[in-house]
Amino acid sequence: MSTRNAYLLSFSCITFSLSLVVSLTTANAQQQLAPVPGMAAGAIAERNEDAKPSVNQPLHLTFALKSSRRAELENFISSQHNPASPNYHKWLKPEEVGARFGASEADIAEVVQYAKSQNFKVTVWPNHLFIGAVGTLGQAENALHVTVHGYNRPRTPGAIGLSSTFFA
């Protein structure tokens, strides 16, 4: 595989993993899968099934967990930037963020159990707001009930570089 193709493949995996943020709030994780609004690749490129990656392609996913304390977190972050606040420039460690504002242990356990049941290697982030999962494209398509397609992005006028292929 050429260096350019390896770079594009790795960039595509990053792009794919970023577009698979999943929102989970209550029981039954499999029925709670939700795509991120506005992530329709077809709107900006032409589909190219010859470019579809292998189902054995390694993939790193990040699941973003909803927290019932999101508003509190946003208020705290604002207070950290307000010189009049007692929280001004008082930064928290990731573990402290998790304890104060992270997802519930039950939600975390549910997502971890589901990801492991789909044979992903799972890592819970210390802030309890994200869970990482490593597997293959085939595992992700099966677990998340999605199909990944290849797309050609045309070279735009005045742009430097060639047209490219990406996956979504």
What does this structure look like?
The longest helix has 16 residues, at 3-18. The protein is an alpha+beta fold. It has helices at residues 3-18, 70-80, 94-101, 105-117, 137-144, and strands at 46-47, 58-64, 121-124, 130-136, 150-153, 164-167. The protein is flat and about 55 Å long. The protein starts with a helix and ends with a strand. It contains five helices and six strands. A hairpin with a 5-residue loop joins strand 3 (121-124) and strand 4.
Put the structure in a nutshell.
By secondary structure, the protein is α+β, with helices and mostly antiparallel strands. 33% of the residues lie in helices and 17% in strands.
Considering the chains and any ligands shown, give keywords for the structure.
17% strand, disordered N terminus, alpha+beta, three-stranded antiparallel β-sheet
The CA-CA distance between the termini, in Å, is 21 Å
Q: Which class best fits the helix and strand makeup?
A: alpha+beta
Classify the beta-strand content into a percent band: 15-25%
Shape: flat
Total helical elements? 5
Helix content: 25-40%
Give the number of DSSP strands. 6
Low-confidence stretches: 1-30
Mean pLDDT: 77
Q: What order do the helices and strands follow?
A: HEEHHHEEHEE
For the CA atoms, what is the radius of gyration? 19 Å
Q: If strands are numbered along the chain, what order do they take across the biggest sheet?
A: 1-5-6
How many strands, what sense, and barrel or not for the largest sheet?
Answer: 3 strands, antiparallel
